[in-house]
Amino acid sequence: xxxxxKEETVFFCSSCGYESKKWxxxxxxxxxxxxxxxxxxxxxxxxxxxxARYPGCGSDxxxxxxxxxxxxxxxxxxxxxEEFSRVLGGGIVPGSLILIGGDPGIGKSTxxxxxxxxxxxxxxxxxxxxGEESLRQIRLRADRIGTMPDxxxxxxxxxxxxxxxxxxxxxxxxxxIDSVQTMFTAEAQSxxxxxxxxxxxxxxxxxxxxxxxxAAFLVGHVTKEGTVAGPRVLEHIVDTxxxxxxxxxxxxxxxxxxxxxxxxTNEIGVFEMSSDxxxxxxxxxxxxxxxxxxxxxxxxxxxxxEGSRPVLMExxxxxxxxxxxxxxxxxxxxDFNRLSMLLAVLSKRxxxxxxxxxxxxxxxxxxxxxxxxxxxxxxxxxxxAAKNRIIPPDTVLFGEVGLSGEVRAVPQASERVRExxxxxxxxxxxxxTCLRGAAAPENVKMTGIAHxxxxxxxxxxxxxxxx
Length: 467
Fold this sequence. Notes:
The chain is α/β, with parallel strands linked by helices.
């Protein structure tokens, strides 16, 4: 039987997991101030105790050439939500460890309960472990969502060693642990949710998933800064980190991947909360454009790429005479510094001086723009608002704007055009360089511009045609 060694106390950085024998005001690894917490740990003297906890660590290993590995050896598991599967890179990879974070009450448990039910309905065994709710509480949510298949089993426990023993007997295809901050192991002498416990429980689950082939979801609490609570090493241990976020309007939920060893980190999934659970939004462009005003100055539609998916969204702009010596600039969904740069370019390169005007730019639907392809639409709404010109509602604009006022090419222009045409837009204003080798779809006008100076005259001409 493994014996316990001498107990000692060490200090852990709650931000990155850095370990130190003494307390320090600033972490030397991540430079965070006041993040060290004192926690007792136990060092195991006997290797046999480690072997008992981590099967296979004493067995022989052998190296193999990479050409002998079959990349398609295991197929992915469908989540039952096309949006969720897309964010994960096409489905759940067997043996993967996935961390899902999000604000309290955002719907993490509901999403995973519906996903578990979908997987179990296909005939696969799924085990849902809750450390926060009783079986009665889970039953109340399950009744609201719908029928739970018999292949979906539920357990309420917080001992990670006992949970792993159960999973080894059940051999499920997927398991859910809600949440990792409630789990503990008796070998780490600290409270549940501490740096030591979170790290140790995550490492044990990682070893289990890799050796058994069971895919596991870990629900993680988030701090007030929006990061996953616990040591930063938790995000390094897992294969995929997904955040479930809430849009500012309409009650939408956005699923974003910030780390994914099996797919792109730029994909986005859109969900809507309803009385019977979460519903996937198959066409987010229509939802994001729903209710947009027409024949109103200062509004335009642009197309952004969220991973491999084109998404149309509305950009709104407003300018007004300032009441103060310093004009006000305010953004929602777009970088403030980006707006300041575009205002300077508009003044210097297009002769539209907004230096004495307050300027506001808003991206509707709770979306946040991170790529520069929305520059042309932002410039257009500012010109429209300043000159009181109307951008026709069937027009889509996209393109990056440089400091010289040039309109630069953006990637995947053809995918953006196809999405705009599919939703009924008939006039596409895009960078001139994107027109090379591109044929305009039937009944669609594609206008390429090379400088923002052309945009002002183009909008004026469009306004006259609509009068």
